[in-house]
Specification:
The protein is mainly alpha-helical. The protein has a single domain, classed as MetI-like (MetI-like fold, Orthogonal Bundle). It is built from 12 helices and no strands. The protein has helices at residues 2-17, 22-39, 41-44, 76-112, 114-128, 132-143, 147-173, 177-184, 189-197, 202-225, 237-244, 253-285. The longest helix has 37 residues, at 76-112. It is elongated and about 75 Å long. The two termini are 22 Å apart.
Amino acid sequence: MAVAQQAATIQRQRSRRIPLTWTLRIGLAGMALIVLTAVFAPLICRYSPTVIDPTAGLQGPSAQHWFGTDDLGRDIFARVVYGARIDLQIGVIGVAIPFVLGTVIGLISGFFGGWVDTIVGRVIDVVMAFPFFVLAIAIVAMLGPGLRSLYIAIALVSWVTYARIVRGEVLSVRERPFVLAATGLGYTRLRILARHVLPNVLSAAIIFSMSDFMLDILVGASLGFFGLGVRPPTAEWGLMISEGNNFIITDPWLVFFPGLAIVLVGFFMSLVGDGVADRLRRVDDR
């Protein structure tokens, strides 16, 4: 016990001495700006994202409407900013539920093995035999459009990846000396899992969650584009692209700005993921 605690303390001290890379700093700064913009949307936007103004339809970007207006006269800037709330929510909840579910299942499967590991392995193989997007769209189509159906679909599909990642890490960690020592001292399996195994297997799952966050946003935007996600008149980036698709030649700003928002979130999250992965590798190398 004392050895394991001392090792964890040394690792934390090493991680504190490693400076943040510019990649991670830029990624965190960009995501912080996007989150703050979404949180303070009522203070930033002069217009409501849902109020219709027939006299202001399809106006180009101007000092009055920074990103222009759509065919119903709604302000595109306001809809992009308020849409960030929905899409970031999809990313956070879409990662949190599968992360917890997959981590728990992966821990149990990898640590106990036997018939439990066999059943989990077969379920993972079945789910991963289908493309992620196809399976998510099929589940939402069966449950009906809406955010709740989207979260259920993401949870049912995404947990298998986290479970597979954590299971693989557990298989290597459970044979290490500090786990064997804890077992020899008579600690309960639950205590060994929570105090000794779990902290040493989360790194890979955390790194994957960075890319999974963006994947979930893309799933939400794709379902919104096909009319299976957020319902009008709620502002959501994928739904905005779908609504502006008919005007893409004459009024390209209708799809350009929500598309740019998706690209920016993906860019900053990729920087965060690369920065976190690099930081964890430096900690392990020391």
